[in-house]
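Summary for the steering committee. One of the milestones for this cycle was to obtain a three-dimensional model of the protein with 2-deoxy-2-fluoro-alpha-D-galactopyranose bound, which we needed before selecting residues for the alanine scan. The sequence and ligand used are listed below.
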Amino acid sequence: MGRWWAPGRVNLIGEHTDYNDGYVLPLALPLGTTCTARVRPDGVVRLRSRQAPRDAVDTTTAALDSSGWSGFPVWSRYPLGVIREFQRRGHELPGIDLDLDSTVPIGAGLSSSAALTCSVSIALRDLFAPTVSATDLIDITRTAENVYAGVPTGALDQSAALLCTAGHLLFLDTRTGASEQIPFDLDHFALTLLVVDTGSPHTLVDSEYAARSAECAAAAAALGVPTLRDAPTLPTAARLPDPLLRRRARHVITENARVRQIAEQLRTGADPRTIAPLLTAGHTSLRDDFEVSAPPLDTAVTAALTAGAHGARLTGAGFGGSIIALVDRDRVAEVSAAIREAFSAKAFTPPRTFVVTPAAGAHRVRASTTSPH
Ligand code: GAF
């Protein structure tokens, strides 16, 4: 028996770039999923989740072929997909009990699903397949999400959960897999990163996300390039006759440039206040060109900026979920209160605000510790 833990994430910048072979810059949250695993010899797979106590799953390793999964609750397709992918890659699993417990809010755009799949994947690696590499784990967990849960995501969330390190941003080129840990010590500059979970469900996320992915592929095809990563300049996008595809391409091209510029500035130890306008520009681009924002997200960003945040933007897929704001340490209470008031004035669900510092990526929890950190 053992316990493993994997984090949720916020993405500082680089949204909807991963499935276009572009750049991302996430950090791991101190919130995550704990997976307690026990090997069993009888081929039985038992899944329990504290967040879905009535949806227990009892099946067998033999039953996990990729068809006929409709009887499994949606949440369980993520861990079952991971188990199935290990099997498909030739790793024999005798049977297992998995008890799962998460502190990542579900539907908040903070990547609760990658925290789930990645905690399970490192448990299975350590128990059954020690030679499986980090790159393989990213592939396995992304496949669990794409094929078994049916969400056509890129690799941002899984890479963040598996590769992030405490105190750092992960600068990742999703095409090559090349990554770099960039120190991100906001405290040194008397700054904080405020996360605002707007509490608005991202209901359209599956259908709209798939639509954005298809639009980006169509824009790349119209430009005659493999992906929008290969259309690196705005004049290139301007050649697109369809205004919708032009806007989608413009977002991806400018967002990739923002990620690289922010990484460049932070790498040299610049005051993070200098990147703040790029964060806000990222939000504007997601709102106007990529059209994935929503009224609670825009309200939170505007209220944060008006109350003195240096920069703010939605994080994750959008359509609801969370924003992040770069805020002076001594103004967090004021900015949080301003957001709450703006939500109250519009009769939105009260938001949940919290401050984060970059946490560790996925790891085994030592038996002697009571906390995963
Ligand atoms: C979701 C997806 F899972 C990621 O792959 C990424 O595309 C993100 O939305 C948007 O940047 O979190």
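Key point for the committee: Residues 2-181+359-365 form a domain with the Ribosomal Protein S5; domain 2 fold (CATH 3.30.230.10).
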